[in-house]
Amino acid sequence: MPKIYTPKQVLSKFKKLGFVEDRQSGSHKILFHPQTQARAVIPVHIKELPKGTFAAILRESKITKKEFERV
Question: Considering only the top CATH level, what class is 7-70?
Answer without folding.
Answer: alpha beta
